Amino acid sequence: MRTDSRREGPIITLDGPAGSGKSSTAKAVAKRLGFRHLDSGALYRALTLGLLRSSVEEADWENLSEQGFTNLDINLETSENGFQVLIRGKAVDSELRTPEVTDRVSFVASLPASRQSILGLQRKAGEDGGLVADGRDMGTVVFPHAELKIYLIADLEERAMRRLREMGGDSPDDLGLAQQARALDTRDRSDSQRTISPLKKAEDAIELDTTELAFEEQVQAIADLAHQLTLL
Ligand code: CDP
Asked: In angstroms, what is the span from residue 148 Cα to ligand 1's centroid?
């Protein structure tokens, strides 16, 4: 990974189920505190996109070694407020959130070799501190010594509604909402039930239910916690 500047400060982790608003919240908290934001889900999405672009048959993904995943050449480059994900040296953004990637990412993330291949990259992103990292195992596995750990939850229906709005649907119908809720629930089950780094609340994490909170309120709540713990 290429890094350009040193920033000091604590590591704050945000874990939780799909669509709980982790990434957007983490990004806003990082901006407010002058920290960098690491979206670890984007790395699993990049591995998945890298595989889709490769000549490896989907049926063989589960047999890939750690080196096989490393060969996909996923990297992080520091950007103004966080990290840009690169595949073979090229920036990727919206391509990471297509249905083709989303439908397969939990499977890829359940493979120990895939997780191991990007562990060092994630830890390196935190080596200078001043980081807000979001994902599923930030507080449990990647940054077990983080100074502040948050576990974000929200009701499934609210998460489905937020995800649809994020995707540009102003007034989703009941069918669309039910489909989105099912897709999120399927991914949560896969993420919680896998044997390696399952989605779970770290013992020392603070649970924050955002169902009734407006976006700005949840950002403020986390910034307040950081202040209360005199981390800043
Ligand atoms: O934004 P959303 O909640 O839809 O998902 P994401 O953060 O982009 O993560 C996509 C997928 O990557 C998750 O469903 C997990 O399967 C996997 N993931 C993981 O296993 N561990 C992480 N630290 C982050 C994501």
From this structure: 20
Q: What is the dihedral of CA 21, 200, 71, 95, to 10 degrees?
A: -20
CB 46 within 8 A of CB 91: no
Per-residue DSSP letter, 144: T
Sorted by sequence, the CB contacts under 8 Å of residue 53 that are 6+ apart come out as 87
pTM greater than the 0.90 cutoff? yes
Gyration radius of the chain's alpha carbons: 17
pLDDT digits (tens, 9 = 90+) for 80-105: 889 999 999 999 999 999 999 999 99
What is the 159 CA–ligand 1 centroid distance (Å)? 14
Instruction: Return the residue whose CA atom lies nearest to atom 9 of ligand 1.
Output: 41
